[in-house]
Amino acid sequence: MCSVNTEDKILNASIILFSQKGYNAVTTKEIAKEAGVSEMTLFRHFESKHNLFEKAFDKFVFSPKFKALFEGLEWDLESDLNKICSSYHDILFKNQNIILMYFKNEELNPEFDATLFKFPNELKKLLSRYFEKMRERGVIQENPDSLAISFLATNFGLFFTFLMMNKLTFETDIQVCISNYIRIFAKGITCSM
């Protein structure tokens, strides 16, 4: 039988509570209670609530596998974008509690925002580099940064739509939507011969 270590218990409890109540509404005392540890133990492991959030975010959201995905692309626009898009949606759905937590925060917190936006900002850089290389290969002509932002915004919108549709009990296959979107996006940005 595998036991969960203390740090993991605290991280798991924090994500549950942050997603239910929002970052600002949760206290370290509540997190410690949920994790079954003392508040002193929580601080011994994480020093502060913000540090705890950053560690939880890194563990649950940012995935080194995502960087590796960009190293193994085929340089076929539609195929590559399908892989990137599917992986991005996997990460979004696995971490929907963290994303929903953000929308529950009523107060702006620059430190919190910087942590939360670390993954999309990193992904934008990876996408921009990919689109720049595709432009160098003569596949596309558009601005790489604009394409990266459009790609991320549309995919986040698709993810959020599916979160809401699920609550409204519409039945649609997200993979079909992703494939259709990628086909249209790739066709729209590909250079005409």
UniProtKB/TrEMBL annotation:
Organism of derivation: Desulfosporosinus metallidurans
InterPro entries: Homeodomain-like_sf, HTH-type_Tx_Regulator, HTH_TetR, Tet_transcr_reg_TetR-rel_C_sf
Keyword DNA-binding part of the UniProt annotation: yes
DNA-binding region: 27-46
GO MF terms held by the record: DNA binding
Record-annotated membrane-spanning stretches: none
Name of the protein described by the UniProt record: Transcriptional regulator, TetR family
Coiled-coil segments on the chain, per record: none
Keyword list, A-Z: DNA-binding
Classification via PANTHER family: ACREF/ENVCD OPERON REPRESSOR-RELATED (PTHR43479), ACREF_ENVCD OPERON REPRESSOR-RELATED (PTHR43479:SF11)
Domain HTH tetR-type: 4-64
